[in-house]
Specification:
The complex is a heterodimer. By secondary structure, chain A is an alpha/beta fold. Chain A is built from twelve helices and five strands. The longest helix of chain A has 13 residues. The chains are: A alpha/beta, B alpha+beta.
Chain lengths: 262, 365
């Protein structure tokens, strides 16, 4: 535990290509927000405050993926400014849903979407922060769990290891007493290959897991794909199942058929 | 000496009511989310009358079956472990106080459960958890408190699922011990043969004034349960099994099964005997309060075998081997029985459909 005399750690929250939902998890921690604000110095958080203090920072929380030349340079600068860099959410840890562009021609999208495509400058890919700079800790999820975010902050402040398990969603699902949606209903579920953290939210409502928390520690996607086939899923269905928020995470990318165009 | 009684459906309802009157929380089978699970019940109306389960490796379907009595679902995904050895339990909480810390008392008193519908295989599983959690120098106080307060109404199986193999494990389908009362559905599940197992069970039976069972009812009950045993299609050959598995440490079958195993942990958490837990410490953001929690763990996770420097069992193959050999071989040396009771949950609820009986057979070849 840090003693009172020590300065509160200076924290910066940085956004890349993302929907802002993960940063909002911090603001969403309503009951704990005052305690968080007392324990850390939120020095840079444009989403929450117009006061933006300059670095360096003790902890940098990075949301979003790298999709532009500008952002590819900016993350290098942020890395140099942060002693500990923690990436938050599927965009930052895997490239996010926007990584679907990695299988397509981004120029076609630009022409289809923008009235004046000549003003758009973008990379052909959406990639995770760890593909650009060394990352100290990755917090998964689309969005992240506010409990896990608070856990990482509390553990960092207390000098202990955060309880962020890397095992499957099934562990949380069975502890919660859910009926297995795949076995009992024949609903395809990514739970067995997806990292825990959400509390098995979708299976609790009889939906298969969408893989929001990305690949678990030892994802056997080949076996799960085989089981999906037994349940009547086509190759296209399986590709689409793995090409969600964590499509570009290597085990899911591979399982979705690396060479396939969507 | 056990005594035998005849019960009809209102008498079963009366039993549930009497247990509730005595301060027990009655827990029994009921339908939820397309399966029969164990949860609180208040009357026979909550029981899964008219439902039958279809079970295969990696597959479970609950189907309407007008001929099915309230206990013809056989077994479902949940086990009584959830009630006796809870999935998550707070071990203690502490608060910072004047530069030191104070351990707060755990004030929650143990719930008194009356379990209604415990199968013979599940009684065997409870007996195994008793040996593990109470039978040593170290007893588990959470389990002990719940276990002491327990009232058990066993129900003998008159149907078997395709994944059942209790007969070969010599744990069922007839409940022999470990119950206060045991019921056997007879006459198409509309009546029950009641049997007392303990003084507590006899006291309840006496209080409710059940009539004595006629001899023909007893022979009908015995035959129905024997028929359920004969209907079982899966089995594990116990003779020489521990030695054979111990000798099969380098068998190529481990590689084959590891290709299918997802190390998701479902088998271990569905298993009524698996008892492993992990411990997590939590603290509040301001560091003023800390708690220690115990949660069900699985030997299929990487962290389970983590020691300084890394995990001992890095491959899924080594984890599956650890689990199966512990269940069917080393458990015997450690606790005097196999760790498997033949309920078949690990088979039905494996999302990859891995069949323990098939693996055990292949490993002996």
């Amino acid at each position: 535990m840090r003693s009172k005399s020590q300065a509160r750690p200076k924290v910066g929250v940085f956004k890349f290509a993302s929907c802002d939902g993960c940063q909002l998890s911090l603001l969403d921690a309503e009951d704990e927000l005052l305690a968080v604000a007392r324990a850390i110095d939120i020095a840079y958080f444009p989403e929450a405050s117009s006061i933006m203090k300059k670095g360096p920072y003790d902890i940098g929380l990075v949301e979003g993926s790298v999709t532009t030349h500008h952002d590819a340079e900016r993350i290098q600068h942020i890395r140099r400014q942060c002693r500990t860099l923690i990436t938050i959410g599927a965009c930052a840890t895997a490239g996010g849903i926007q990584a679907l562009r990695n299988w397509a021609e981004v120029d076609e999208f630009v022409r289809a979407v923008y009235a004046s495509p000549q003003f758009i400058s973008t990379l052909k890919t959406s990639t995770s922060i760890a593909e650009h700079v060394p990352v100290d800790f990755e917090l998964r999820g689309c969005p992240i769990s506010k409990h896990q975010l608070l856990e990482v902050i509390s553990a960092t402040l207390a000098g202990r290891k955060p309880n962020v398990p890397t095992y499957s969603v099934c562990m949380e699902c069975k502890r919660r007493g859910n009926v297995c949606t795949m076995v009992a209903h024949g609903t395809p579920c990514l739970g067995p290959v997806t990292q825990a953290g959400c509390g098995a939210l979708c299976p609790a409502y009889n939906r298969g897991c969408y893989g929001c928390f990305g690949p678990m520690e030892s994802p056997n996607t080949a076996s799960l794909s085989q089981q999906f086939r037994v349940l009547g899923q086509s190759s296209g269905d399986i590709t689409r199942a793995f090409r969600g928020f964590n499509a570009w995470a290597w085990p899911f990318r591979q399982a979705s058929g690396e060479g396939h165009r969507s | 000496m056990p005594r035998f009684f005849r019960l009809d459906e209102p008498a079963l309802d009366g039993l549930i009511e009497a247990l509730r009157q005595q301060g027990y929380t009655a827990v029994g089978p009921r339908v939820r989310d397309g399966a029969v699970i164990y949860d609180e019940i208040s009357s026979v109306a909550d029981l899964p009358q008219g439902w039958a389960s279809e079970q295969e490796a990696g597959k479970y379907r609950l189907n309407r079956d007008p001929s099915a009595g309230p206990f013809d679902y056989v077994i479902g995904p949940s086990s009584w472990k959830q009630w006796l050895h809870p999935p998550e339990a707070r071990l203690f909480a502490a608060e910072r106080e004047n530069g030191a810390f104070r351990i707060l008392p755990n004030t929650t008193s143990a719930p008194r459960y009356a379990l209604v519908g415990v199968r013979a295989c599940e009684l065997a599983a409870i007996a195994i958890q008793d040996r593990v959690l109470l039978g040593d120098r170290y007893t588990d106080p959470i389990y002990q408190a719940r276990r002491k307060a327990l009232f058990v109404v066993a129900v003998n199986c008159t149907r078997s699922a395709a994944t059942c193999f209790c007969a070969s494990m010599q744990t069922g389908p007839r409940a022999v011990e470990g119950f206060d009362l045991a019921l056997t559905p007879v006459g198409n599940g509309r009546q029950y043969l009641g049997e007392t197992g303990t003084d507590a069970g006899a006291a309840v039976a006496g209080e409710l004034g059940w009539p004595e069972a006629p001899p023909e009812m007893m022979s009908e009950a015995a035959e129905t349960v024997r028929a359920a045993a004969r209907a079982q299609t899966r089995n594990v050959a116990l003779e020489g099994l521990a030695e054979a598995l111990t000798a099969a440490a380098e068998h190529p079958r481990w590689e084959t099964v590891a290709k299918r195993c997802m190390a998701c942990g479902n088998c271990t958490l569905a298993c009524p005997t698996c008892f492993c837990t992990t411990v997590e410490d939590t603290s509040t953001v301001d560091g003023a309060r800390a708690e220690r929690w115990r949660k069900w763990d699985s030997c299929f996770t990487q962290s389970f075998s983590y020691i300084h420097g890394g995990s001992v069992r890095t491959s899924v193959k080594s984890r599956y081997r650890q689990w199966l050999t512990h269940k069917l071989a080393y458990w015997q040396q450690q606790f005097g029985t196999p760790g498997c009771v033949g309920c078949g949950r690990c088979i039905t609820w494996c999302p990859a459909g891995i069949d323990l009986t098939e693996e055990a057979r292949a490993l002996r070849a």
